[in-house]
Amino acid sequence: NMDSTLHYIHNDSDLSTNSSFSPEEERKSKVQDVVPQALLDQYLSMTDPSRAQTVDTEIAKHCAYSLPGVALTLGRQNWHCLKDTYETLASDMQWKVRRTLAFSIHELAVILGDQLTAGDLVPVFNGFLKDLDEVRIGVLKHLHDFLKLLHLDKRREYLYQLQEFLVTDNSRNWRFRAELAEQLILLLDLYSARDIYDYLRPIAFSLCADKVSSVRWISYKLVSEMVKKLHMASTSTFVVDLMNELVEKFCRCHKWSGRQTFVFICQTISEDDCLPMDQFA
């Protein structure tokens, strides 16, 4: 009975993939020797739509939640067993399933290593960046953790997309922008002084003028860390240009809130020793 059940499960999962493999080849691609094969086959069958209707509507979410643990158990050499299931879950109609994967994609990247991550996870990651805010927050919260695992060239490609995080489905979702500011502080270590000045500086200035004070306070810390990073860089012109822009944009702002922002940024730079005092003066 078990053999016939597994045969049914395999055939069923074969129908749900767009693979050019025959059913027999598809079955062999999911064979491994780490855990009992029957257990893995049962797990892989959780993405079958008919099971969601007859067993549990949340079954795909449970499958997504457990996937990093299954991948860790099987090891990266057996990722081929899980790849189709992961891609099926990543395109699931329920945003809760995609959100679950978005929150754990950085963990999966550590398990799989840089080659498999670049080939199989980066396309999924790019899809999540364009998803609903409920899904995007998952990749945003661990943006630094994921990007630090990529090669420098691949990592630089995301500089152009960071600006998109300022746009949300709901403008009142200020926690999204606060999280972006937190992540940008961590991302300063991953990029060159020129990249920070060209791409991260405009986002930081935009966040400093946010309507919500909680976002602004984190952004003051972001700007002070930016000043520190650019000061330590070999090219000194970037930090001078940044400070001149701070004066021009905030110190000489016709609104009192802009001038107040300048004072708070100065306070943070001073407290965190981001600059030598003579240069601060």
UniProtKB/TrEMBL annotation:
Residues 11-30 are annotated as: Disordered. One of its GO terms (molecular function) is protein phosphatase regulator activity. InterPro entries: ARM-like, ARM-type_fold, PP2A_Regulatory_Subunit_A. Keywords: Repeat. GO terms for cellular component: cytoplasm. This is Serine/threonine-protein phosphatase 4 regulatory subunit 1. It comes from Podiceps cristatus.
